[in-house]
Structure formats: structure tokens, C-alpha cells
Amino acid sequence: MDLSIIIVNYNSGDTLIECLSSIYERVEGITFEVILVDNHSADGSPHEIKRSFPQVYLIENERNIGFSRACNRGIKRAGGDFLLFLNPDIIMCKSISFPELLDYMKKNRRTGLLGCKLINLDGTVQSSCRRFPDILTVIFKRISVFQCFSFARKKVSDYLKPVSNYTEVQNVDWLLGAFLLTSREIINKIGPFDERFFIYFEDVDFCRRVHRKGYEVCYYPLMEVLHYHKRESAKGFNKILFLHIWSGIKYFWKWCGEVKSEK
Q: Where does the pLDDT of residue 130 fall: very low under 50, low under 70, confident under 90, or very high at 90 and above?
């Protein structure tokens, strides 16, 4: 098996159907499997998947166990030499070529993690690669009053847009977890996702661990996918924002020594 595509679903509905349809339409030239880990969705999506995509290996959790633990359940089931962690709100574009992506990973042995270009619905490019954050970055980004100060705006801008352009293949600090391609070899060396992160910061943590083992995180914009990015944590103070903040606290507690040394 060349590739295992692991998707975590929680009430993704029609977007998930579009995602799966695009996978089976666009992924060709390799052997692959799709593993869907459902976190106890209440929108009927597991039933629809069984009906419309019987070829998908469906893991149904009895409760919402979070993104990291769900991914790890998928990893245990996966049989591919490479693993793609894919959000259910991703749609494959015509430019996608998995034989080319896997070939790049095979030829560039120091690349531990790869992400392609993410496109918004309006055709604009998402800033999907970032610098590693520090505590001030998070404060300036989350508390709007700081946006009145140029130094705060610059710090947030440098964090959100760490590259001069989104057209060149280049190594970055970390990538958004919507599309993360890695290998079984890398998983065996750095371990699965850290299950302390229920949701958010698990991608930052994973990328940092890839770097720590001496591998590179690659932004590969020669391939594009559409991303229905909702940014639920940006809609005022709600449960999702609380989880985002709580994961951030866990992240900085875990990496406090290395984060300080980077300043």
C-alpha cells in the first residue's frame, strides 16, 4: 500500500462527501486507502459514508475523543508506506498528483512532513505555513487592542506570513494540519500525535517534533487543494476558543525551554 489517507470527522456533513468524492476522482497512479475516524457525529454522516462510500474503512468512536487521539486510531489501522492527515473540508484540485508528491518525499529523505498550497473559496491563497509562535504572538493575535500598535501588528504578520511568496518549494517551521503528508518511517521515529492536545496546536507540536529529530517541514505549493476554512475559534469567546487557548497553554508548558531559547 502506497498511501493511507486518514480523515477525522465530526459533523462535517456535505463537505465530507465532497472531500471523499474528490479523493476518489483525483487520486490515481498509486495504491491507497481511506480511513475515516468519526468522533461520534450527530449529523448522520457515518450512515451516509457507509451507503455512498463502502470502500472507506470507517472507525466509529462512541464519543468525541478529540483530533489527536482520533488520528492515532487511524495510524494504528493504516497500512500505507505514507500517511496523509486530511481535514474533511479539503477538496482535491486538478493539479494534485500523488505519484509526484510521494516521489518528492522518496527523493528528499530529509523531508519529514509536506504540505501543499491551500486555496480559499475565492481563489486566494491561505497562509498555511507559519513561524513557531511564542506567548507574545498569541496574546497580540488574540487581544484586538494590541492591533493598535505597529510592533504588535508586525509580530503577528511575521508569524502568519513567514515567507516572501507562496509559489516556491521551501522549508518552514510548521504547517496547518489540514493537509499533512508524512511517512511511516517518520511516524516510527517521532511517534504519533500528542494526545494531550484535544484540538489545536497538535500540528504545531507535531512539526516541532519533526524538526527536533533533524528533519524538514516542506511547503510544496506546486500542488493545490481547496480548503473550506471556517476558523471557528475566531467567532468570539466560545467552547472552541477555550479549547484553542487551553491547547496553547499545554503547548507552551511542554516546549517552554525551547520557545524561550528561540527569542
A: confident
State how far the Cα of 88 lies from the Cα of 90, in Å rounded to an integer.
6
Tens of pLDDT, residues 81-109: 999 999 999 999 988 999 999 999 999 99
Distances in Å between the alpha carbon of 240 and those of 14, 234, 246? Answer: 21, 9, 10
pTM: 0.90
Domain boundaries, the chain: 3-131+164-234
CATH number belonging to domain 3-131+164-234:
3.90.550.10
Q: Average the pLDDT over 129-136 and give the result.
A: 84
End-to-end CA distance of the chain: 43
pLDDT computed for residue 235 by the predictor: 45
State how far Cα 216 lies from the chain centre.
16
Contact 176, 67 (CB under 8 A): no
Catalogue the E-assigned strands of 62-137: 82-86, 90-92, 111-119, 129-130
